[in-house]
Amino acid sequence: MEGLKTLVIEDEKHVRELLVTSLQNYCPKARVVGQADGVKAGLRAIADWAPDLVFLDIQLGDGTAFDLLKQVEHPSFAIVFVTAYGQFALQAFRAAALDYLLKPIHIEALQESVDRAWEQRGMRQVNVQLRQFMENAQSRPDEKKLVLKTLDAMHVVRVRDVLRCEAEHNYTTFFLRNGKRIVVSRTLREFEELLENHRFFRSHQSHLVNMDCVQCFEKREGGCLRMEDGSSVPVSKRKREELMEVLDRIDKD
User: Fold this and answer.
1) Does domain 4-132 have CATH number 3.30.360.10?
2) In this structure, are residues 184 and 190 in contact, taking their beta carbons and an 8 Å threshold?
3) I need a surface site. Which of 35, 151, 213, 240 has the fewest CB within 10 A?
4) Mind listing the pLDDT tens digit for each residue in 126-175?
């Protein structure tokens, strides 16, 4: 099996060497062809090797990962950001469907990143993801967008246009206000964390709703939320009291 041509761009020598060794020992789908310690060296390595996959530290000695990427006209490689950033930055990566690893790097997480890059080889749409990441960083909360990756496409969706989400095993179906449905291979829990500051509420183990799209709460049959498209979303018994508090706050706003 011919592995993905892989570059590691990281300014901390011990982290870079550990990452290279881990890829060589535990990730047969990745073939390390080069490494670099900064923006300038990284740009040269990208030009020399035309990689399939780049592990890229956020903070480099002579700039940032985004300084480097701005100078790559049409990146055609998969990117895994390596970061020690906090939760807010991680949510921004998730919203743009960008892959990342947290320092210190764990082997299982590294293998999962390589596997994702392998599965998506030939479907390089990193420009869309990076552009959305940068736009979200500068936009108002009501203008934030999600990048939803399916098997054959990458959808950019405004958070406010999401009516609700429904889980089935490790898949989540997005129901949009225009009637469109998008199925992604990510758990509902991931999106619950991502959307918690956008007036979304987990009404049930399998359901996450945009409270701005709720028309009313119906108490019959154990309780359900009637959405603006006419659909009905169940409310679990253990979530009912919390829902009442949320509705009360909305009423006071």
Assistant:
1) no
2) no
3) 151
4) 667 777 776 666 667 678 888 898 877 888 899 999 999 999 988 999 99
